[in-house]
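Posting this for the archive.
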Amino acid sequence: MWLFYAIGSAFFAGVTSILAKCGIRKTDSTVATAVRTIVILVFSWIMVFVAGSQDQITGISGRTLLFLILSGAATGASWLCYFKALQIGDINKVVPIDKSSTVLTILLALIFLQEGISLPKAAAVAVIAAGIFLMIEKKDVQETKSGRGGWFLYAAGSAFFASLTAILGKIGITGVESNLGTAIRTCVVLVMAWLMVLATGKQGEVKKIGRKELAFICCSGIATGASWLCYYRALQEGPASVVAPVDKLSVLVTVAFSYFVFGEKLGKKEAAGLALLTAGTVAMALM
């Protein structure tokens, strides 16, 4: 069943990117992240009580709690980078770079979680890496070096912290029911997001969020909550080296919706990269 949860995670994550993009056209990305985290927190704790796992809180070990907190902190950092990149860059450019965390996650899982390294897995990772490389345009990297492509740095930061999230989350989620683990992590993300709002003096902008954008931000929070619940249930039952790449297939959902919603199209090179990314991920899932 973990594979179905991973696929569900990918779908909801793809929808999240589109809804979030719609919600940060005028709203500051840091403020939007903090607001949507409230929605996710409420959603995740409702699921805890529905699953009846709230009684397990007192039985959580110190080690499990530590890794859940670290995973939440990594998630918060990844989010802040990701939604800033989404706000100032094209979604079809930001998402593939963010998904490059797949390669690092797979390598870390195979090495540190001892999920086994084989020639077929190595070949699949290489195919995924090649696909991501094709989806990143050379001019984007050049713009970053010249100081005009700040979104690229934010997207790269998002990818780095996302890979840490998966590994730390895998370790922490093994000692607790997945819904409860997700809710605890969300508490950490909430604190981190609002600290960033206060640190940058943007708390006054919360009242300025338009109703339409607020609706999109809240919907993106619900989609993220659903994605998380599926993702960490999949991590709990399946290997991180496979769950992570399957989850990243959300790029297919994002690309499809971005075409119809924003009119963003992929070039031939980017389309070939997407095909390789998909093929490598499917191969990892079947191994």
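The longest helix spans residues 62-88. Confidence is low (pLDDT under 50) at residues 139-147.
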